[in-house]
Amino acid sequence: MNFLRILCHLKTGQLAVKRTFSVASLDAIEHAIKQSEACHTGEIIFAVEPSLDLLPLLKGQSARERAIDLFSLLRVWDTPQNNGVLIYLLLADHDVEIVADRGIDAKVGLAGWEAICHEMERTFRKGQFEAGALAGINAITHLLQTHFPAESAGGENILPDRPVVLG
């Protein structure tokens, strides 16, 4: 059991999200997702969570495991071409995870997603959270445009574009 991790999670709350992502930043992320989804048939969800609850922490749940849970809970898998992508930020762990549906994951692979996560984390370490989020969305946009270009203007928007703030 990692007591330092538990302590960090217990002291990280909603205020941390508000300090990290202002309303204007959340608006910019939403706008970037809307613009992105006009260029391809995929769906992007950006989710940020300040910390995990105590029970998952005691069980040792990782940010990756939580991201996989949220991928299902937020129905990111529910796209016709299996090309939904979840960007998940767990603030207490300073960890970014990307979970992608099988249609786009088969084309990008683990190394591609990890490269985007590492670049976002590098930008976040500089305190540039909005810029890091936008860079991640931009990188995913290029991948989705390459593999799932827009078939026509005005395609169906299945998932919400507004960032999901949990906790």
TrEMBL record:
InterPro entries: TPM_dom (IPR007621). Pfam families: TPM_phosphatase (PF04536). Residues 20-141 form the TPM domain. Coiled coil: none annotated. It comes from the Bacteria. This is Membrane protein.
